[in-house]
From TrEMBL, chain A:
UniProt protein name: Phosphate-specific transport system accessory protein PhoU
GO cellular component assignments: cytoplasm
Family designation: Belongs to the PhoU family.
Coiled-coil region: none
Source organism of the structure: Candidatus Nitrosocosmicus oleophilus
Compartments it resides in: Cytoplasm
């Protein structure tokens, strides 16, 4: 016999994985748009971001309802708590994607800028998102250490690139300064996404072991 | 569609080089975690594996009020408790949970030696109450019972007695004749059971004229009158409506300030709400015991997890 709680948990899971896919695609689209200097995707990214925000509220409502109606415990309770956190994480991904495309809209076109540092970090960040979501899907905490390791790399890259950008600001050179500012902003958003990818890892660890991640 | 599939190894190694290169820029170590905090390569914290969690040492209560040791109990030759070890902390509520027939009530009845009264029942092992083994041949079951009050599933006030006499009955049976003393104890007991305000003008009315919830609190008052050190409660709210149940739960929280409470309940949420420690029993065995917070959030045993989550039982 299926527990009534399981019906609710299945629904929450379904929304969470919808959010995960949408968040990945939205961030990926924002980075591709930055690379190609293409602002035509802004509306799509905005809509995705808004949808993620809407779904976050839906997950939150559903989780509260499940807690109130079924008073879940143990893994069920940990999963519900984690879903509320995960929905926030995916919603933030959408917001950062929108922030990236907004930078392009305000400071672009940026086709003459050196985008290598952003693209390098974005590869890491997208991989982190992918690993985190896979870990969540498979309930596999064996790959979480890799996500944490990658976050360390992102942090280092972020500090290094920001420092370098600040050292080459040229007076009265609007074009170069646009590049530096846009790079600094987008690196910051990517660094935040990387942190949030770690929150996914934290949630997977919490669901599986009941332990808070020791890394923070 | 992702931009990358697997992390590029050359990229990874180049980043590692850069990490070495700019180590002078490394952020200061501000993380609050005390287990593993450095940012150096190779010292990243590892996830605490499930196996590690399972190997955590058995939970132990320091200086228990009551200690059940290797307790076995039989009914007509059938083993009902298979060597229970359980420590009960003073001034705390300990909940016994588990499916029907797992031995919760038998354990409770062994603790105050009521099990002895059942025909063809037998118990073996030790129950230490403040350094006294209550199953020692020299222990007097009557004296043991005086130190422990018991409240049953169904309220059972003495049907022919008034509210006042229900509470005073135990005192009178124990030879207390001082009417003023009895009056004071009845007052204190009814107050202690959160019933005084509701019955103070009706003390002469029959106990059974009260509502079910009030009758149960009257039974608690009757138990309190004997000033027990331990209060045993066998599903005390299963026959009560939610309001009456919540009053009993609030009462338990107050009572534990002065005595030790052991409660048998089938209501998981009640155990989670009222108890400080929870013991899960199954088929006559104690499967898991620990702080209630841990049992309900992170049970260590799969069986506990399955039971409290409603997957069996």
């Amino acid at each position: 016999m299926v527990r009534l709680l399981d019906l609710g948990l299945t629904k929450v899971s379904s929304i969470i994985f919808d959010m995960a896919g949408l968040a990945e695609n939205t961030v990926s689209k924002a980075i591709t748009s930055y690379k190609d200097d293409d602002t035509s995707t802004k509306n799509q990214i905005f809509e995705s971001s808004a949808k993620l925000r809407f779904l976050q509220d839906e997950v939150s409502e559903l989780c509260i309802e499940l807690i109130a109606r079924f008073q879940p415990v143990a893994t069920d309770l940990r999963y519900i708590k984690s879903c509320m956190e995960l929905s926030y994480v995916f919603s933030r991904f959408g917001r950062y994607a929108f922030d990236i495309i907004t930078v392009l809209e305000i400071l672009g076109p940026l086709e003459l800028c050196d985008k290598s540092s952003v693209m390098r970090m974005s590869k890491l960040v997208l991989e982190m998102m992918d690993l985190g979501i896979s870990a969540l899907r498979l309930r596999d905490n064996s790959i979480l250490a890799k996500i944490y390791e990658m976050e360390e790399m992102v942090d280092v890259l972020y500090r290094k690139s920001t420092r370098e950008s600040s050292q080459i600001v040229i007076a009265n050179n609007y074009s170069d300064n646009r590049c530096n500012i846009s790079t600094a902003l987008i690196l910051k958003y990517l660094e935040r996404i990387s942190d949030h990818a770690c929150y996914i890892a934290d949630s997977v660890n919490y669901i599986e072991t009941g332990m808070a991640s020791p890394r923070r | 569609m992702y931009l990358v599939g697997n992390l590029d190894n050359s990229l990874k190694s180049s980043i590692k080089d850069e990490i070495d290169d700019i180590s002078k820029y490394s952020k200061t170590e501000t993380r609050t975690d005390t287990t593993t905090t450095t940012t150096e390569e190779g010292s990243l914290p590892s996830i605490k594996a499930e196996t590690e969690r399972k190997s955590d040492t058995e939970f132990k209560i320091e200086n228990p009020k009551l200690s059940v040791q290797s307790l076995k109990a039989w009914f007509s030759g059938k083993l009902a408790l298979k060597g229970i070890n359980l420590d009960v902390k003073e001034n705390c509520v300990t909940a016994l949970i588990g499916p029907s027939g797992c031995g919760k009530t038998t354990l409770l009845r062994c603790i105050n030696r009521m099990h002895d009264l059942t025909p063809n029942a037998m118990a073996e092992g030790k129950i230490i109450l403040d350094d006294i083994n209550i199953y020692d041949k020299q222990s007097d079951p009557v004296l043991i019972k005086r130190r422990m009050g018991m409240v049953f599933q169904k309220p059972n006030p003495f049907p022919t007695m008034s509210i006042y006499d229900n509470v005073a009955a135990g005192l009178k049976l124990n030879g207390i004749k001082d009417k003023n003393l009895i009056k004071d104890i009845v007052h204190d007991s009814l107050k202690g059971a959160a019933l005084w305000e509701e019955v103070k003008n009706d003390l002469d009315k029959p106990g059974i004229s009260l509502s079910g919830g009030q009758q149960q609190r009257l039974c608690i008052a009757r138990a309190l009158a004997m000033q027990p050190e331990i209060l045993l409660m066998d599903e005390p709210t299963s026959a009560l409506d939610p309001i009456a149940s919540s009053k009993i739960e609030e009462l338990m929280n107050d009572l534990k300030k002065n005595l030790t409470v052991i409660i048998v309940t089938h209501n998981m949420q009640q155990a989670a709400r009222v108890s400080d420690y929870t013991a899960f029993m199954y088929l006559g065995e104690l499967i898991e015991f620990g702080p209630t917070d841990q049992i309900f959030k992170y049970p260590k045993k799969e069986l506990t997890e399955r039971y409290i989550s409603g997957k069996f039982g």
